[in-house]
Amino acid sequence: MATPRPTPTQTSETHVIDLDVWSDFVCGHCYYGTRRVTKALSLLPDPHAVRVRWRGFQLDPRPAGERPSGDLYDYLAQFNGSRAAGRAAMERIGAIAAGDGLPFHPDRARPGNTVAAHRLVHLAAQEGRATEVLLRLYTAYWTEGLPIADPAALRDLAAGAGLDPARAQAVLDGDEFADALAADQLRAAQVGVTGVPTLVVDGRWAVSAARPAETIAAELRLLSQERDGRDLPNRKGDEA
Predict the structure, then answer these.
(1) Lowest mean pLDDT segment, chosen from 101-105, 112-116, 140-144, 234-238
(2) Do the beta carbons of residue 52 and residue 21 sit within 8 Å?
């Protein structure tokens, strides 16, 4: 079984910033946005002074057994009005991803219910590997064509990211962490998160995680220095 990673030591003077990040695996903006968040953290003077919680969000809450028919563009047409509109949206996201040096192959994407994937991220959080598992799932969905709702694929991806495969399978076979995912969605409603990717700092400030990493890092530095100042305007995420 994977060994949990130790938590970096905090001094008594360190004020840890709580950073809640909502995203969904079938969201193209979340694919590059989650990586922008991790890059932003690396740009901070003390990345360990930020406590990140990856929270699940469901853009398409249809039951897990109802897998969409057709390809990604048939799926997107349900929300964007047409296949052409969905393709245009993916082209815009692809241009952003390319600018960040990320591969992006939406033609390979196989959409589906993301509940099981989000529950695996909660398992990974217990093991200190939430970021690794989350990013691996995004890469698999948006570049490799692995089905986001397939239990066998999810188990293998989790194992490749450092989780014990038997433990991952046990989670996938039951409903463990379903309550944690429900809490994520309740908390999103409480703080006004209606689109993803969105990060909320200390439960007070909402910032779009689709913004450049340097901008996110600059705002985190500002907020860490001026916690008692005025609230920044809320900037919610971009759905796609």
Answers:
(1) 234-238
(2) yes
| Closest alpha carbon to 19 in 56, 53, 48, 63 | 53
- Among residues 234, 236, 220, 225, which one has the least CA distance to residue 50? 220
pLDDT value, residue 70: 86
H-assigned helices in the chain: 28-42, 72-80, 83-99, 115-126, 130-139, 151-160, 165-173, 178-191, 213-225
Tokens linked to 35: 């990586």
C-beta of residue 121 within 8 angstroms of C-beta of residue 161? no
Please say if the pLDDT value at position 160 is more than 60: yes
- For residue 178, which phi and psi values (nearest 5 degrees)? -65, -35
Q: What is the pTM of this model?
A: 0.87
